[in-house]
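Design review, sub-item: ligand-bound model
Attendees: FS, YL, KQ
YL presented the inputs for the magnesium ion complex:
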Amino acid sequence: MENSFQEKLDEELRKIGQTVKKPNILLLGGTGVGKSSLTNLIFRADIAKTGTGKPVTQEITRYEIENSAVVLYDSVGYELSGENSKDEFIAKIVEFASASKSKKVDEQIHLVWYHIQASGHRVTEWDINLITKIKSLNIPIAVVFTKCDLVTEQEVKELANEIKNTPCFEVTTNEKVTPKYLDLEKLIEWSSNNLEPVLKIAFVKSQKVNLEEKKKNVNSIILQHTAVSAGVGFTPIPFADAPILLANQAGMVARILYVYDLDGYGNLLSTLLKTVSLGSLISTSGKWLVGELLKLIPVVGTIGGGMITGSVAAAVTAAMGYSVSEICFTISKFAIDGEESKMEDYIKNLTSIFKQKMKDNSII
Ligand SMILES: Nc1nc2c(ncn2[C@@H]2O[C@H](COP(=O)(O)OP(=O)(O)OP(=O)(O)O)[C@@H](O)[C@H]2O)c(=O)[nH]1
Ligand SMILES: [Mg+2]
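KQ shared the predicted structure:
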């Protein structure tokens, strides 16, 4: 049983890895405004140094980030675009974005982040022109004001006032500013909301700054799987071994691990998680919780099996989902805050933490 859960989990993770589609994000803005610093922070990457970028045009380089499920199209500022005039530069960028629209989904530009440095820069007519043209292609575009640690709130507001009908986000990569990174989490939320479901999950997984967005997406995954479990309802007790239920729960856990980027494809936490074998822990606790739940429902032996098993199955699936999600959230938070010793302690006590959470999250 333990092994089969682990096997199913691995199988489900493989399936997700094979079917997921990576969103393509186009990064626009002048040279030195902080595009690379920001994307490195969001995706915990080092795109400038990886050397994996492939030039796709004179102006645009494509980066596949290692251990990440997004693709970045980084552009040079018009200042570096060679002999081109600004108008020519804009025309080339628009042509690139426009041409992508007639390609297959994997090759389209799905989002544009338009960076404007808040300090010492103005919003120019060329900025407005390029933003307007991208919008007319129906590609979601957000203006990102960078280096907001260097200016007053009032100064950024004045800049933002010059942008009409386009969402604006004020950000900084300076850790010392509060609230941390300013609107960066909102930029992530906006981006997630503007991606098709099949692209969204890869984006939410890859970003490392907005854990609430991960949790939100995981909650809807849990609801879907809980509904499936309720539908399995006719499996007689004890049903924890029932293959359909097991597959459904393994699929759910795999998707949760994926969204939190704890799915074991080369991320920094996979080794730690592997050592406690979350899969076997979950299947053991699933059985344990079923036992606990049955004790709480005295009528279980007397009512005809079907309906009770459906709701108990749903309850166990939901408890399992929320428990795994909360644990992944905590571990991710430790990782983001660089609190490795706390994370190690937490993982050492994972068995008892998980069982307690299963009890707390049980809705019966
Ligand atoms: N104060 C401050 N400096 C920043 C911030 N973000 C980036 N920088 C600095 O700005 C400089 C340029 O940052 P990059 O991320 O290389 O900018 P870029 O837009 O990728 O530049 P190019 O790729 O060369 O066009 C670096 O020295 C960064 O350290 C910020 O939020 N605040
Ligand atoms: Mg750069």
